[in-house]
Amino acid sequence: MKVSIEINGTTVSEEVEDRTLLVHFVREQAGLTATNIGCDTTSCGACTVLLDGESVKSCTVLAAQADGHAVTTLEGLHGDEGDLHPLQRAFREEHGLQCGFCTPGMIMASVSLLEGNPKPTRQEVRDGLEGNLCRCTGYHNIVNAVMNASGQEVQR
Amino acid sequence: MIPARFTYQRASSVDEALAAVAEHGDDAKLLAGGQSLLPLMKLRFAAPELIVDIGPLDELRYVRLDGDELAVGAMTRHHDLQHDAVLAEHAPVLAQVAASVGDPQIRHRGTIGGSLVHADPAADLPAAVLALDGTLIARGPSGERRIPAAEFFQGPFETPLAPEELLTEIRVPVQDGLGWGFEKFTRRALDWAIVGVVVAGRSVALVNMGGTPLRASAVEAALARGASAAEAASVAAEGTSPADEPHATVEYREHLARVLTERALVSAGVS
Amino acid sequence: MSIVGTRVVRIEDHQLITRGGTYVEDLRVEALTGAVHAMFVRSPVAHARVTVDASAALDAPGVVAVYTAADLDLAPHKAGPVVEPWLADGVVRYVGEPVALVLTEERYQLADAAELVDVDYDPLDVVASIDAALTGETVLFPDQGTNVLQAGDGEFDDAAFAGCEVVLSHTILNQRVAPAPLEVRGAACAWGEDGRLTLWLSTQNAQISRATVAKGLGVEAADVRVVTPDVGGGFGAKIGTDPESVVLGWASKRSGRAIRWVETRSENLVSMTHGRAQQNTVTIGGRRDGTVLAFRLEVVQDAGAYPRTMFLPTLTELMATGVYHFPKVETSNRAVVTNTTPIAAYRGAGRPEATAAIERAMDLFAAEIGMDPAEVRRVNFIRPDEFPYSSPTGATYDTGEYAKALDQVLEAAGYADLRAEQARRREAGDPVALGLGLATYVEITGGDSGGESGKITVNPDGSVTAWTGSSPHGQGLDSTLAMLLSDQLGVPMDRITIRHGDTDEVPRAIGTFGSRSLQLGGSALRQAADQVIEQARALAADRLEASPDDLELSEGVFGVRGAPASGGVTWAQIAEQTDLTADVWFGDGSPTFPFGAHLAVVEVDTLTGKVVLKRIIACDDAGPVVNPLAFQGQRHGGLGQGAAQALLEVMNYDADGNPTTATLADYSFISAPELPDFELVDSETPTTRNLLGVKGIGEAATIGSTPAVHNAVVDALSHLGVRHLDMPTTPLRVWQALTEARKAN
């Protein structure tokens, strides 16, 4: 079937199998490979993108379901001038990433989290990221990054 | 993992959806938010030939006060329920239970109708609707029918809905002034409940204590006799048949049912 | 002022936070254009005779080839004393064992075709546990005659425990866990027209992988190039490479096609090697004043179905006595095969098991004599004046301040107040019990003593390119090494490029494991930089008409010491005239012994058994710190992973050898809400065993935190009669322990 999705402001239209998952459409058809696949049970959150502004696990959405909708991936967060989104800046400043594999999904989940709760407590950040797994950081600096991006104090 | 091949069809109205599934019967599946169905299809535990996407049916996304009942559209997402002002006022327990489903990403997609129709014994919303004495409204080729929650959950992943029927609405009595409590016991935040308890007024329902959500009838009877929370909770495991699993034995689940029921009753204002 | 020791954000991060890393699945290189996709058909049963019929799959859409053992013409591959088939050859021995390889044109065709590979499994009796293996009722490899494929029997003499006022024994399970890096295993490969195989591989060691693949394929190492793209975590399970890589290289040659392979998570959880899986029996004896007089450790390693890595139990023996000076010590090890996924390194690899055993033993001993666990440890520490300390098991510890680490942690935690709060809750009968758990540890890093390569070239524009044999995959080593070189050469970090992981660029190397990278890879680059400086100094002296001895290097300029007016010579000025390169092998670095103390504070709901980790206070001393940001990050990650083992994680099998935790929905990978903020206490005790004075930090915090959290859970329940419970301390386990204790009382 023909699927058209506005990804990071650009419409991508491609003929794909009906069963195509959104994550594969983003990676293969749109050629945007920041979004990663870390599991097959909707558990890890590495594939998190924004669908119409809300975080979703793109491994558990059909490309067909996103047809006619807007998707934002990590690559769409920063401007052409290279100006970083506050969360991108904060993840670097706070060392909120190590191997980087969970990072695109973690940042997109954090964007959605702060959208709904601009000044979360540390516990709210932890709870809000329950659907995103990280094996490297022990989450401490991820929490710091989200706190930093929300303009709040960080404990290093 | 990739689902087996299927044909995708988008429904732009309830009638269109009904027509599509009527034609294909057992080979067709309605796709709501997809947060239960797609994982099963990816693991190839389910392989429908036709997927009818009812995601676009925004007319089934609502929470409305209708006299002394709340009407909730079947396509209302967990995230919507969690943040709905009408629900917060008239049935806060439902908002609270919705807030505990899955994780934020899943709650952005998953729908109450999808969760109820999936009828996973470990799911929270079926128990909530059961505790609330909800009514499920389904439409099919022969029109609309109303099914009490108590008759809806027939077994693990088993409901009376025919393949060509579509759940459209859930109705629950307003809970104004009634106490409520919800306890969900998990190892990790994102896990399914090992045991859960929903208390709405003097109704008590259990999650994952059998093949379906269960009313804790013995507890309710004790409460009706004026028992304390502790006394009533002590019979919470009566009539249950929980699964024996490596991370939760039958005895442990029965014990948890008692402890959590007491806590939920106390939250609900039973002393 | 030197940037070494200051907090510097990582040079790796810009790409990772804007476009994402380039992991093996992201590669868009020309050689892989038109590559076919690969999937292994894996056994769903633990032990069976197999026959494979691929004919139906061959007719499926897009299928390029289906290969089975019958097609392979590779020399047999030994795992320990037995042969591990490349693809199952007549018998499968664990769930997840590769049986066939399917190649298709499109990714989405793989699973469809794999389903059509018809495999008949004729079940055999299953050995699903260490205990079942030891009975010998079913033997996995009949020609071996036993399931015990390695035995290092110590000489045990109960006389060692003569004179002890207290002797106790306990068997402690160190459960099997899944390394579960967030990026699963993946590879891509293509044979070039020059007859060489290029293998892009998610690995910790391109060079070891090259050797393994070349040997497996029966070609020269020079005929294989391994390239490491970004790697999404390894944790020991990506040391070298697994048999799959050899089969892929073979299949690429046979089919004449480039191949891409990425496993699924559900495959990963059963077919990437697991870690830990030891059953350790401790016997500890001593006096009621807290002095331990004798200690015995009997290690039984579950090796899984094929004994791929046999050093784990011996490393556990080596580190058996931890931070303590015990007069008499006895150890033994055995490794058995079972119908489970093979075991190999996982963050700590042999040392966490040693620390878990001794630290539980110390708490059992403390409880038995009624002494505070902190005090018992203090009585038995190796004293600072005993270093270098030769341990009875054969290790030579370099430096340590064990009591100091413990005291710092107790102070930072407010230990006395916490004990008072615990007593108050017990007095009040609070159903939420407070538990305090200590672990004091020493570990060995760079324990392989194999050295590392380092090469530096100063480019004609004055920028620097450095090649390291280390192979980082999340540790931020590029930044750390660039900081060191910037400091040493006076070249800004953004003018320094660090390269690694391509065997054509770095032919000789060992790679990253065992927390070895900074102490060995860093020392190698230090040595190379020294050599480049000496080359440049001589050339600069000529230009300045001065003696080399009178020159100093300051901010990238060679000038005459004390005579700034005489001008200077820059790196660019020298490098544009002469090739400035040094290529070294740092081979004289011996192992170092980082140490520390951790205190965990838990709350246990005694009604449900649920454990909440409230605090963890950690002192991890690995010598001088180059980048506190990266150093703390390594500790955080270690604390999280170590706590996860104590609290939640276990790879479980039923009696038929079926894994019951084979997806990320079932395997309790820890998430953010289960962990607290970490409290770090700083301490730096240098070593003399390498050029930087540093010790490794990659695994240390994992090693300390597991027994600290484990001890805290037992401590919380001790007043209710619980003396021990095995990890993970899940709600069910805790509730069962409490129920049994109640019955016993």
Question: What does this protein look like?
Answer:
The complex is a heterotrimer of chains A (156), B (271) and C (745). Chain A is α+β, with helices and mostly antiparallel strands and 156 residues long. Chain A has two domains: 2-75, Ubiquitin-like (UB roll), CATH 3.10.20; 80-150, DNA polymerase, domain 1, CATH 1.10.150. In chain A, 30% of the residues lie in helices and 15% in strands. In chain A, helix 2 packs across helix 5 (140-149). The longest helix of chain A has 14 residues, at 103-116. The radius of gyration of chain A is 15 Å and the shape is globular. The model of chain A has no long low-confidence stretch (mean pLDDT 96). Chain B has helices at 14-24, 37-42, 78-82, 85-90, 92-99, 104-109, 112-118, 124-131, 149-152, 217-224, 229-233, 250-267, and strands spanning 7-10, 28-31, 50-53, 63-66, 69-73, 135-140, 143-148, 166-173, 180-185, 195-200, 203-207, 214-215. Chain C has 745 residues and is α+β, with helices and mostly antiparallel strands. Chain C folds into four domains: 1-31 and 185-262, Aldehyde Oxidoreductase, domain 4; 34-124, Aldehyde oxidase/xanthine dehydrogenase, a/b hammerhead (Aldehyde Oxidoreductase, domain 3), CATH 3.90.1170.50; 349-380 and 395-445 and 592-744, 2-Layer Sandwich (Aldehyde Oxidoreductase, domain 4); 452-586, Aldehyde oxidase/xanthine dehydrogenase, molybdopterin binding domain (Aldehyde Oxidoreductase, domain 4), CATH 3.30.365.10. Chain C is 29% helix and 24% strand. In chain C, the strands form eight sheets. A seven-stranded mixed beta sheet of chain C has the order 3-7-1-14-11-12-13, with helices on both faces. In chain C, strands 9-17-16-15-10 form a five-stranded mixed beta sheet. A four-stranded mixed beta sheet of chain C has the order 20-28-29-30, with helices on both faces. In chain C, a hairpin with a 5-residue loop joins strand 11 (186-191) and strand 12. Chains B and C meet through helix 12 of B and helix 3 and helix 18 of C.
